[in-house]
Amino acid sequence: MTCFVVIGAGGLGCPALMGLQAGGARRVLIVDDDAVDLSNLQRQVLYSVAELGASKAQCAAWTLASRDREVEARTLARRLDPDSPTLLAELLDAAPTDASEELVVLECSDNPRLKFAVHDACVAASVPVVVGGVVGWRGQAMAVDPRRPELPCYRCLFEEPPPRELAPACAAVGVIGAAAGVVGQWMATLALSVASSLPGSPPDKVNTASGGGFDHKLTSEQPSLSAESTSGRESSRAGAGMLIHFDLLNTRIQRLEPTPRKGCRHHGELC
Amino acid sequence: MATVRIPTPLRKYTEGKEEVDIAGANVGQLLDNLDAKHGGIGERIRDPKGAVRRFVNIFVGDEDIRFLDGLETPVKDGDEVSIIPAIAGGL
Ligand SMILES: [Zn+2]
């Protein structure tokens, strides 16, 4: 059964968790050391006024559990250090242990260096990862599936994190709550799509209760993922290897779908 | 003239404008002219050697210039040039 690891339970993490749950995810690990704050509530939709000051990770887990008795939501209330060489091991320690477990990581934090560090750790360990970001009306999301080295990674597109002055925090420039909702939900669909292509997740069984590799409870009212992932699965990227850039103010969507880049630290030798 | 779409963090160089019209026969010239008109923006996009910075992608229309001719990629009147930096916020 796939365990979805959501790093950051804020503006992106909340809608991502809702999307994962709606898509049938049964195991999640929520990583966030922050507390619920009144100024976040409009976009951090898993929390209520009654939870001000409480742990976001814990409140998010409660909300998920209150909506679905079968979901197993674990929490890790820790601030991840982008410089830690054991970044992924810390997550693995906190994730539900199960030999057959496949992980898919969703990087939903607001820390550019952490985004790149989590991506790099996942690629090195061959764990699929979805990287997303949002600022103002704009957002980006990309699924990276290191088990398919013929597809590009995030570093193929962006060689390094932008410096501080070019990566304004949402706290400084603001974010449209609904834009965070779109990007977070998009990240969830990418993660579900990648999970449905994991070994042991036959796509033809994905829409039957508990048939998928992540106990994917898609019902007949939610056929699209299974229909998409079933058709041409062999040649499909399952959503991986392309970055979608949204400009929601102008309804512009751009798709960056490169080949792996020469000189990428993960792909250099393959090119 | 091409229309250059300016990403949020760089709009302080364009008086808050989201789009500016700039002349230039190719992307490199266009970026030179953009910097001449909006001092300081150029070094945010290119490094001191003139290469596009490593956290930025530039598109002409829907095409990534890395898969065209890079900074030599020709630009026509009415083309839309987008500067797309890595977006790393999430709060
Ligand atoms: Zn790469």
What do you see in this structure?
- The complex is a heterodimer of chains A (271) and B (91).
- Chain A is α/β, with parallel strands linked by helices and 271 residues long.
- In chain A, 29% of the residues lie in helices and 17% in strands.
- Chain A has a single domain (2-270), classed as Rossmann fold (3-Layer(aba) Sandwich), CATH 3.40.50.
- In chain A, strands 3-2-1-4-5-6-7-8 form an 8-stranded mixed sheet, sandwiched between helices.
- In chain A, strand 1 (2-7), helix 1 and strand 2 (27-31) form a beta-alpha-beta unit.
- In chain A, helix 1 crosses helix 7 (177-196).
- Chain A is globular.
- Mean pLDDT of chain A is 83; it is low at 202-235.
- Chain B has a single domain (2-85), classed as Beta-grasp domain (Ubiquitin-like (UB roll)), CATH 3.10.20.30.
- Chain B is built from 2 helices and 5 strands; from the N terminus they run E-E-H-H-E-E-E.
- Chain B has helices spanning 27-37, 41-45; strands at residues 2-5, 19-22, 56-60, 63-64, 80-85.
- Chain B has a 5-stranded mixed sheet with strand order 2-1-5-3-4, covered by helices on one side.
- Chain B is globular and about 30 Å long.
- The A-B interface holds A 8, 10-13, 40, 108-112, 115, 132-136, 138-140, 157-162, 165-171, 173, 175, 180, 245, 254-256, 258, 261 and B 7-10, 44, 54-55, 57, 59, 62, 64, 66-67, 82, 84-91.
- Zinc ion (ZN) is lined by residues 152-153, 155-156, 260-261, 264, 266-267 of chain A.
